[in-house]
Amino acid sequence: MKWLFVLIACSPFYVFALDNMTLKFGSTSGSGWEADEIVAQVQWLSDNQMALTLEVARLTLVNLKKPLKNIKLTCDHTVYSAKQIFCPDAKLHLGGGLLDQPTIDLSFTYTSDPQYLYLSVDDMALAGGNIALRAKSAPTGWQAQLNVNTLDFEQLLAKIGKFVELPEHLKLGGNLSLKVQASGDSSDLREASIEGQISDLSFLANQTGTQAGENIAIKIAFQAKNLNPPASQSENLNPPVSQSEPSGEGSKPQQSDKKTVQKFGVQGAVTLKKAELLIDPLYLTITKKQPITVSVDLVWQPDRLELHELAYTHTDVITVKSSGDIGLGDNVSVNALSVLLDKTPLKPLYTHYVQGLFDDETKVKALDTSGAIKASFSWLKDKQHAVAEFININVEDSEQRFGLGGFNGKIEWHNQPELLPSHLGWDYGYIAPKPESKSKIELSASRFDLGLGAKQVKLLKPWHQPLLDGAIRIEQLNLDNIGDEQMALQLGAKLVPISLSALSAAIAGPPLTGQLSLDMPSVSYRNNHLEINDKIRIGVFEGDIVVNTLSMDDLVGQRPVLKADVDVNQLNLKSATDVIELGEIQGQLSGYIHDLLLMNWQPVSFDLYFGTPKDDHKPHIISHQAVKTLAGLDSIAVKALSYGVLNMFNNFHYEGIGWGCHLKEGICQMRGVLPAEKGYYIIKGKGVPHLDVIGHTHSVDVNELRNRLKRLAIAGKTGEPVVEF
């Protein structure tokens, strides 16, 4: 339009020679757009008035999936002179259904010397609301003001969806009111501000409904200012009242040869006044008394972002502040960053941000919490530092299944080789596997002292946690090269003997005898290889289990490999079967698992045997249920002579029990406590009533053996026989 106005205004010969003029263009295009069938008409009404019409049959924009059609701009009374064109009552028609009312009333003024353009749109009906625009351009700069009043999001999406691709499952409701002001010069933006609010917002962002919100009210207020503005100041938005030119307006601002780097200061905030949000797994309810405000104060440059302060404030819940210096461009780099969480009460933080993260099945939602936390983090190119403090924290499950009280501590880390001292401690704690029984495992006061460095965690002194009538004690813990392929671990720990009777009472389990202990002098992990450096001894069921050798390769890889050699010495079967529930057996059990090789947790080879030790002087009694369970190792094994009396007695005496398997190349060669005439004894009976359990299968596939062991475990839990007699 500008070139058309200039042509008309500067060509008086054609103005007085013609009553009207029509210009037609087939099509024209530019970067990202193309216009077809353009017609411009001029009709002279008097010496200084004319009627203007500009029509575009089709306007194609690269980002729209269909073109805008039937665009028509008319001005029935255009006042013109050699320097100015003024149209107070223009109309713009825009077809295609984008607007509620296709015709827009507007006015414009254009002057040629100096070049000045003023545009006013009072009422553009869109999506149930309206838009008003004031804009002007002058040699000293430009200004624009946009007012958006109560646009309905649902209607807006329906209209925009005709022209652009929207997410398939996006649903949006509510309305928007906004006021935008901006000013600048020919090359740069000087200032901009935006103020507005969104009311009754609701959204659904995906088909599953895991990203949704409703009853949302938002307040928006931002300002941006060019920190290197030109010396001249822009004019106000009022159009000129006469054709005369203000003195000095035609002068151009002095240009500098040095290119000024764009630099904008931005301040503002977005406030969620109320909302119900589900961003799975987080569910958040925001009320008028506890709104959320995200505020920012920054300086932006094309290659740098100076973040003076970015603050997230949930009133009476949490405030997190950050500042930093971030490099922009092709690769974003953090030159400096600081994040601060001031002392924050734990209870509201848990209620609003943690509680919803747990599934209903866990029942962890019902926690009573108190105390506070505090944290900070700083990042420089070569140095990072983090601190977290826990202040008198108390946590207890509402069903009293577990609790921890007087939890205090400080965790401090940096990426330097030197270790920073940290500690965690508590006054008491408990675990109640069966809260209804009032029994529980209680923890008395204890404290961890750790050193944290770049990629290292080290126990600074032994950790001792009293437990029942014993204790857990870690003598050594050193984890190095964390996160690297060369990660290494050194661990030494022991379980000071705990009586099984005390453990049974604490968990409301069946009465047990004996002690449980552990002695693990040293375990190392390096280069994805785990190995014990000395024997691990586990005291249990009045005997012990000794891990002579154990190693693992590719522990966290795709095909872990485990090798081990284990001996079992004189376990009390009465205590063991009370826990394992295979049926009661009295006596002792010894045995071994030698040359054990597992690949990807599947057995490849081993030599295994468990049986009655020769020096066992305890009574040898086995229950009816245990006989049936052990018979499942061979799928059938009860001697025919014993079948008639099996169901007549609850218990039987035995001379010995034993079963072994030598696995090689997928086949298990099985054996028992003694060889039999046509097989091997799994149970060698003694006395009257006499019962023998004899195995007849000498070789079995490893997969079948695995199935038998599964059936044996099920039989122990259900009490059902695993074989038919």
Explain the overall architecture.
The structure is a single chain. With 725 residues, the protein is mainly beta. Among the domains are: 1-113, no CATH class; 470-552, no CATH class; 560-725, no CATH class. The chain is 11% helix and 57% strand. The chain is built from 9 helices and 44 strands. It has a 44-stranded antiparallel beta sheet that branches. Mean pLDDT is 83; it is low at 1-17, 232-236, 241-256, 636-642 and 715-725.
Per DSSP, the total helix count is: 9
| Strand residue percentage | over 45%
Helical proportion, percent range: 10-25%
Cα-atom Rg, whole angstroms? 42 Å
Mean pLDDT equals: 83
Name a few traits of the molecule.
disordered C terminus; mainly beta; 725 residues; disordered N terminus; 9 helices; single chain; elongated
Helix and strand layout, with pairings?
Layout: H1 2-9, H2 12-17, E1 20-30, E2 33-46, E3 49-61, E4 68-80, E5 84-93, E6 103-112, E7 115-126, E8 129-138, E9 141-152, H3 153-160, E10 171-184, E11 189-204, E12 211-226, E13 264-279, E14 282-286, E15 292-301, E16 304-314, E17 318-327, E18 333-345, H4 346-354, E19 367-380, E20 384-397, E21 402-414, E22 420-426, E23 428-431, E24 441-443, E25 446-452, E26 457-459, E27 463-467, E28 470-480, E29 488-499, H5 500-506, E30 515-526, E31 529-532, E32 536-540, E33 543-553, E34 561-572, H6 573-580, E35 585-586, E36 588-599, E37 602-611, E38 621-623, H7 624-631, H8 640-646, E39 651-664, E40 667-672, E41 674-676, E42 679-685, E43 693-695, E44 699-701, H9 702-718
Antiparallel strand pairs: 1-2, 2-3, 3-4, 4-5, 5-6, 6-7, 7-8, 8-9, 9-10, 10-11, 11-12, 12-13, 13-14, 13-15, 15-16, 16-17, 17-18, 18-19, 19-20, 20-21, 21-22, 21-23, 22-25, 23-24, 25-26, 26-28, 27-28, 28-29, 29-30, 30-31, 30-32, 31-33, 32-33, 33-34, 34-36, 35-38, 36-37, 37-39, 38-39, 39-40, ...
Helix pairs in contact: 7-9
